Amino acid sequence: MATNGRERALWREWARSLDRPLTSYYLILGTGVLLIALGLVMVLSSTMVNSIAETGSAFSMFQKQMVSAAIGLPLMFLASHMPQRLFRKVGHPAMIVAAALLLLTIIQGVEVNGATRWLNIGGLIVQPSEPAKLAFALWGANILARKDELRELTEWRHLLIPLLPGCGMLVLLVMLGSNLSTALVFLVTFLGLLWVVGAPGRLFVAMFGLVLGLAVIAIAIEPYRMARVTSFLDPGADPMDSGMQALHGLYALGTGGIFGLGIGASREKWGFLPFAESDFVFAIIGEEFGLIGTLLVLTLFGMLCYAGLRVAFRVKEPFPRLAAFAIVTWILGQAMINVGAVIGVLPVTGVPLPLVSYGGSSLVSTMVALGVLLALAKTEPQARKTLEARGPSRVQRALSWLGLENAAASVNNRGAAPSGRATTTRGPRTAEPRGGGTTAKHRSGPVPAGDRPRRNRRR
Predict the structure, then answer these.
(1) Distance between CA atoms of 368 and 77, rounded to whole angstroms?
(2) Torsion-angle region of 122 (φ positive above 0: left; ψ -120 to 50: alpha; else: beta)
(3) CA distances from 40 to 34, 35, 236, 365 (A)
(4) What is the pLDDT of residues 53-64, one digit of tens each?
(5) What predicted TM-score, i.e. pTM, was given to this entire model?
(6) CA distance 187 to 195
(7) Cα–Cα distance between 378 and 386 in angstroms, integer?
């Protein structure tokens, strides 16, 4: 009985710890950092063989990923300190820039393995579809937030216009670059935004039918997509070509067992599993860390999803709620598509595992998205009160010089008062009568020393 009582007390203490004001913030930060660190370790492990074969150094691809992480870290830090009004303002121009870069990719992009997904900008190879995911999330959240503030979300045309044309434009541009997997991520984010604003069920049925029809057409017109579907239905039909990646991904998971072969001991990365560092890094995790490692990765993504949804359902304003939900839908949906392809429940799509797979554009874009989530987590009512009690940080004071933070209001409302004077944010104060006499007049400022009530002291 005593043991059960202690267990219940521990559970109550754990539940109270989850109800703290900054729980969402620290969960997002902690899970994000752990996933990034795990990703760097797995990129080093899975790329050593190919790096030696291509450059003679085992660390060449890992160094590129480290540079991307070094770029993404300060961007994530800055994004976490930006006000939400800046995210609202940047959504529309970011959407225009993303569409322009995707169009430029189609015109003069770099083609790899039959897909035109990359753009050479001054010698730097980037994948514009990755930052376009964040741009669409912020733009879509701002569009629906404005309509919600104007009470216009009761009609279906306000739900779909201009959100559906904007999503359709991005889907068309990435499809022209033979990137069906990223198109699926855009569609998942689009449906997530519709769900969180309370779109009717019949609209989802219609959209699902439309997406399914377009997917069938897109698969039918491209032979390599049809080959992927065929290999998904029967991977053993062509084990040396179209079914090779799916089969060896399952081999890697099976070889790892429960505890794995050990870090760096993967066998499939020695040329047997194509794109082991990006599309199938989850299989290498399962091979080297076993079932325990894969469950740990899924748990981290689950905690990240919980923290993001916690932000979405606790904030008061429509924009942070919609933006947080859109970002969580994007990251979680992409992770589910990647893991589903590795374990064989979905066709191989070529979607990277967020924060873990090799790829600079994906890593930097997702880290910035985490920074946005961290900034939105600070807008929770209890988190905002806690941060106001602490006063403005050095970063907020520094950003005030750039016009990004209203430092004057922050200092007046949260900062310490000058010496010799007292400030108050409460209403008028009433002085007690000195000796049971009349009440003093209400004053908006501090009570002078001569009007303060005196305590009777025994001499």
Answers:
(1) 8
(2) left
(3) 10, 9, 32, 16
(4) 999 999 999 999
(5) 0.83
(6) 12
(7) 9
